[in-house]
Amino acid sequence: MNHIGGFITFIKPGTACIVLAGGVAISGLTEKALFSLTTKGKEYRNLPEPALLINAFGVSIVVFIIAVLYLVTRPQYARKDVPAINKKD
After folding, report:
1. pLDDT tens across 45-80, in order?
2. Any transmembrane segments, and where (predicted)?
3. What burial class does residue 30 get, using C-beta atoms within 10 Å of its C-beta: 0-12 exposed, 13-18 middle, 19+ buried?
4. Which of 43, 48, 63, 75 has its CA 20 to 30 A from that of 84?
C-alpha cells in the first residue's frame, strides 16, 4: 500500500497533497470531537450541538476537496496561454 501511495504522490503531487491535507483535517476534527465532547459530560454519539457543527465542517471540507480535484483534473479549467504575457524577447 505504501508503494501505491508513493507512486500516486509521484505522478500527481498536487492532487495528492490536497487529499492528504483533507485527510489530516478530517482526522483532527474527529479526534477533537471524540476527546473534547466526552470529557464535558456530553457524549459524541448523542450528537450535541458542537458535534453537529463539527460534522458540518467535516462535510464542507470533503465537498471542497472534491470540487478542487474536479477543477484540477479537467482540461477546460486549465490556464489558457496568453501570448502577450508569455512573450519571450
Report:
1. 788 888 899 999 999 999 999 999 999 889 898 878
2. 7-30, 50-72
3. middle
4. 75
DSSP 23-89: HHHHHHHHHHHHHHHHHTT--GGG--HHHHHHHHHHHHHHHHHHHHHHHHH-GGGSPPP-TTTS---
Domain boundaries of the chain, sorted by first residue: 13-70
Q: Name, in order, each residue with C-beta under 8 angstroms of 62's C-beta and a sequence gap of 6 or more.
A: 22, 26
The C-alpha cell at 11 is 505522478
Nearest to 12 by CA among 53, 62, 68: 68
